Amino acid sequence: MRQSERLASVGVLAAGVAHEIGNKLNPMGFVVHNLKKRIEKGKELDTEQLEVLTRSIQNCSTIIEKLRALAHPEQQQPDKPVNLNEVARDVTMLLGAQSKSRGVTVNSELAEDLPMIQGVHSDLVQVVINLVLNAREAVIAADKKEKQVDLITRVDGSGRAVVEVRDNGVGMSSDVQARIFEPFFTTKGMNTGGGEGGTGLGLYICYGILSRHGVEPEIESIEGEGTRFVLSFPLNGEETHEPNA
Predict the structure, then answer these.
(1) Which residues, in sequence order, are CB contacts of 190 under 8 Å at separation 6+?
(2) What CATH architecture applies to the domain 80-233?
(3) Rounded distance, CA 245 to CA 117, Å?
(4) In this structure, are strands 218-222 and 148-155 parallel, antiparallel, or unpaired?
(5) Is 65 exposed, middle or buried (0-12, 13-18, 19+ CB in 10 A)?
(6) Chain-centre distance for alpha carbon 98
(7) Helix 202-212 crosses helix 121-142 at what angle (to 10 degrees)?
């Protein structure tokens, strides 16, 4: 690889790390603010929020560790059993109250007896946070009376664990859908709700994470009606092939 290409790759990675940590720090700050208000009012601390905050700090540390993993790939986190319901709960706890303050309701519908999948919990939280943030911005841009984002887990007909993020926002054109996972592609400024940060890196990074988990994200979107992202995770032991980037 030429030196110029190496520098370009480092630049993309650095921007992506800054973007992802920023996505986590924003809702973490909101949780800290809520906890501070409870202390000032003499109320008991919400232990669940404290636990989520602790995990989020650990997630930020994990993102930073990915920089070191480039030089030492043998040190990357190994796959472990992951409960996607716990992933969904973490995201709802981090973004639920903050979204409500912006007039958006984040609903969660979690399936019972959801099969465990193999993966990295913090990476999957990162993915779902991005999807919910994008959905939230799409709903706000639509300026509808009821602003709603649904975070759903279910089991499909093949027994796979599935995560869905669904909104009633502005939707996306077929052209936008075809490019949504490209690096630096963003719909910010186009009033399509394609990303809160506007860097065009959030979904690009998410696609890489999902590829490593053997997931090809499905998108269903109708302009003016909303968007649905579907993530279907392979069963343990199921042969998978990473999607082509």
Answers:
(1) none
(2) 2-Layer Sandwich (3.30)
(3) 22
(4) unpaired
(5) middle
(6) 15
(7) 140
Q: Using DSSP bridges, classify how beta strands 105-109 and 148-155 pair: parallel, antiparallel or unpaired.
A: parallel
Burial category of 183 from C-beta neighbours within 10 Å (exposed 0-12, middle 13-18, buried 19 and up): middle
Mean pLDDT of the chain: 81
Instruction: Give the single-character DSSP code of 169.
Output: S
Q: Name the DSSP class of 1.
A: -
The amino acid at residue 177 is: Q
In this model, does residue 111 exceed pLDDT 90?
yes
Distance CA 109, CA 111 (A): 7
pLDDT at 15 > cutoff 50: yes
Q: Could you tell me which of 62, 48, 57, 63 has the C-alpha nearest to residue 93?
A: 48
Q: Quick check: 113 and 155 in contact, CB under 8 A?
A: yes
Q: List, for residues 113-123, the tens digit of each pLDDT value.
A: 999 999 999 88
| pLDDT of 221 | 96
Reply yes or no on whether the pLDDT at 224 is more than 90: yes
Nearest to 139, CA basis, from 93, 177, 163, 104: 104
Structure tokens given for 20: 């992802």
Which residue carries 């949504």 as its tokens?
A: 180
Gap between the Cα atoms of 84 and 216, Å rounded = 16
Residue scoring higher pLDDT (61 or 31): 31
**How far apart (Å, rounded) are the C-alpha atoms in residues 244 and 106?**
32
**pLDDT for the residue numbered 77:** 67
pLDDT at 241: 54
User: Where are the domains positioned within the chain?
Assistant: 3-75, 80-233
In this prediction, residue 70 carries a pLDDT of 45
